[in-house]
Amino acid sequence: RGPSVSLSPPAIRVRPLTCTETRRGDRQVVHSLGDGTVHVSAARHDATFGFSAVFDVGASQEAVFEGSRMRQLVELAIDGFSCTVFAFGQTGSGKTYTLMGPPAQSERRPAAPGLLGLMQRSFACLLEQSRSRGADLALSASYLEIYNEQVRDLLNPGPPCALPLRWSKTRGFYVENQLSVDFESLEAITDLLQQGSQRRRTSAHTLNRHSSRSHALLTIHVCSRAVSACPALGTGGGWGSSKQGVLCFVDLAGSERVKETGSSGELSVEANNINRSLLALGHCISLLAKPRGKRTHIPYRDSKLTRLLARSLGGSGVTLMVACVSPSSRCLSETLSTLHYASRARRVTTRP
User: Fold this and answer.
1) What confidence score (pLDDT) does residue 233 get?
2) Phi first, then psi: what are they for 325, rounded to 5°?
3) Can you give the residue ranges of the Kinesin motor domain (predicted)?
4) Is 48 flagged in the annotation as binding?
5) Which pLDDT does position 262 carry in this prediction?
6) How far is CA 300 from CA 54, 99, 240, 292, in A?
7) 101 is in an annotated binding site
């Protein structure tokens, strides 16, 4: 265990105005001022926020990967640490694009290399690091979604069924009977990502044609064994120490106001469950942001999402939040909420 550190300071990504917003006459009210500062300027609202990095509307996917220090998280996972990156923000703010790139990718319709998200770039970096370090890496992946407070396995080809969420002193909260698949190549893990994403629940509404209706967690388990430089019993080499690391990507469903999205029926039920779990996550972050001596009980058990993120938020892991916001004047309230949310997360410390 190392010294106390903050969650990797949150990074902010401002997406461009959409064609619909431009035609409607929405104004851009969010601007990057440089040096990690973002300014919100609108009627009766004038606020400035500071973060580790702010990616404005013109930022490339590569710039977000390098500027958010995602490469360092991959290296820490290989070194045996538990690392998590999660994208947070209003529905339609660019979370899934930031993590995965354009929607509807497939083997026949791959995304252009420049549009690949944090996940694919991290996979490539992980395999590059494995080769350059001369380490023997055993890699496996699991992929699940939390839909209407039910945990579902996205890698299981059968019909979706709820999996039980358990607790143990050694593992913390974990999903029972979750499928874990070994992989050795970039093609294999990319294929797993695409297969699982196609099974994830999505729907269209007023603010987003590809709205995620669930929280999705892709977890890469990294077991590394370094090759010893010293000959072992005259054989010319031997195995060094073994390390167990984790790299988890969390694509949170977007917060939304039913009035704005026009949701009804099943969509409304989904929205209420999404907002309830995000509220529980925000409550945990607010309590974790308090000095250790003033903290009360952290209610991780309030939702399935906070149970599965308990170690990432307040335990022994290293966590990066990428907060995605819309610059549209129509989304001002949700944008301010996201920026305040990320500001609280800056004050959370863990012991990796």
Assistant:
1) 44
2) -135, 155
3) 7-348
4) no
5) 52
6) 29, 25, 37, 16
7) no
Annotated ligand binding at 206? The verdict is no
Angle among Cα 87, 47, 22 to the nearest 5 degrees reads: 65
User: Does the global pTM surpass 0.85?
Assistant: yes
Of 320, 349, 352, 336, residue with least CA distance to 52: 320
306 is in an annotated binding site: no
What would you report as the CA-atom Rg of the chain, rounded to the nearest whole angstrom? 20
Helix ranges (DSSP H) in the chain = 19-24, 61-67, 70-78, 95-100, 118-133, 186-199, 258-261, 266-288, 304-308, 310-314, 332-345
Here the tokens at position 90 are 């209003």
Instruction: Name the token pair of 135.
Output: 């380490």
Model confidence pLDDT, tens digit, residues 80-137: 999 999 999 988 899 999 999 987 676 677 888 899 999 999 999 999 988 887 767 8
| Structural contact between residues 199 and 154, judged by C-beta atoms closer than 8 angstroms | yes
- Tell whether 96 is in a known binding site: yes
Tell me which residues of the chain have a pLDDT lower than 70: 1-9, 104, 106-107, 135, 202-211, 226-240, 256-265, 315
- Superfamily of segment(s) 8-104+115-204+213-226+243-258+267-286+296-346: Kinesin motor domain (3.40.850.10)
DSSP string of 151-210, one letter each residue: EEESS--S---EE-EEEETTTEEEETT---EEE-SHHHHHHHHHHHHHHS-EEEETTEEE
Among candidate residues 84, 214, 197, the one with its CA nearest the CA of residue 149: 214
Residue 34 assigned ligand-binding role: no
The answer to whether 41 is annotated as binding is no
Q: In which residue are the tokens 């469950």 written?
A: 273
- Residue 258: per-residue pLDDT: 55
Distances (CA, A) of 148 to 3, 207, 245, 276: 37, 20, 30, 10
Which tokens belong to 28? 């851009």
